[in-house]
Design a protein that fits this description.
The protein is α/β, with parallel strands linked by helices. It is about 30% helix and about 25% strand. About 40% of the residues are buried.
């Protein structure tokens, strides 16, 4: 079964103040850290970003933009666009703003996935973007966006999302690994 990775790297990064894909942690760009976490499990990965950022990525990477007419319509547009442009039977999706995500956690998430959609909940907080999707969800992503619905979770629920909780990682790990670097302050405090 072909598994592909999708790194969500669009959006405005308005809280962060500069494109989060090119924020750095220990001399690695965030997008590189996401690709590192995905690479052991994905034959190929694709980065879905804003048009003006495409040229900033190295030419040997698979980089694309949200498809029209859903450009910039949130993470759901990035997931749909990644699936449209890179064909696979299942996808591991990661936002580019979780720089401490590990390949080990992604491996455990994948092990928990059987069919439909699998995503993460930790301490009652949902992380719908850290997720595994069967390609069968693609028509429903389309339909949602065509109807102006942008909530990723609505599509996940339609596919009987399995929320993975304690089996994925310990409480100590969770806090840091699932840290969303939405602001520079959060990153600087790490
Ligand atoms: N491809 C794509 N990715 C997106 C889009 N909007 C957000 N993302 C990505 O989805 C993840 C979560 O994004 P958010 O933090 O909610 O939004 P953001 O636009 O990055 O940041 P803010 O402007 O501060 O809300 C990040 O990895 C973003 O890069 C979009 O319209 N298209």
């Amino acid at each position: 079964m072909k598994t592909a990775g999708i790194v969500l790297a669009g959006g405005l990064s308005s809280r962060f103040g500069s494109p989060k894909a090119f924020a750095e942690w220990e001399n690695r760009y965030f997008y590189e850290l996401s690709l590192d976490a995905l690479s052991p499990y994905c034959e190929e990965s694709i980065i879905v970003t804003r048009p003006e950022l495409v040229e900033r990525f190295p030419g040997d990477l698979n980089v694309t933009t949200d498809i029209e007419p859903f450009m910039g319509q949130g993470p759901i547009a990035g997931i749909l666009s990644g699936m449209e442009k890179l064909h696979a039977e299942r996808y591991i999706v990661l936002p580019c703003d979780m720089p401490f995500m590990t390949a080990d956690v992604i491996g455990r998430l994948l092990e928990c996935h059987s069919s439909g959609v699998t995503a993460v909940v930790l301490d009652g907080k949902l992380h719908p973007l850290v997720s595994v999707w069967d390609a069968a969800a693609l028509p429903d992503l389309h339909e949602a966006l065509e109807n102006g619905k942008r909530r990723v979770m609505d599509v996940q629920e339609k596919h009987g999302v399995r929320w993975i909780e304690g089996e994925l990682l310990t409480e100590d790990e969770a806090c840091r690994i699932f840290m969303n670097a939405n602001t520079l302050d959060i990153l600087e405090g790490s």
